[in-house]
Predict the structure.
Amino acid sequence: MGKLKVYYGWAKLGKIRKKRAISVIFDNEWHGCRSERGQRILRAAQETVIERYQDAEEEKAAKDCNRIFTEYSLFLDEKPINGSLNKILQMNSDADKKHVSKEMRDKIAEALRKAFMQTNRKYREPGWQQLELKFE
């Protein structure tokens, strides 16, 4: 039996999903996301940018689940994130603090940032104009 994985990416938008979000999907059973059906569901749900293995504590939680995976989302354009890429990446990293090394959390944040910037080339952190005005 292999270790269970966690998949990080950006939620795919469409008829059902209308809001930009970081999508974090946890395998709940070994053949879940790795099966053909699981891979289809994963591709439909998110643009996966990086994956890691779950730690023992995370795997324990999966054993009580009746779904092949569990998804958590952080919405970019809702409070308290309000469109801030830095804030959403920090909140995602904080959520993983107990289970993931600082080095791996930085890798995840960098992969998510890179993928976001490739599809949102004109993105600027909110509030950057006010900061410039303060220094005049």
In short: The chain has one domain: 5-119.
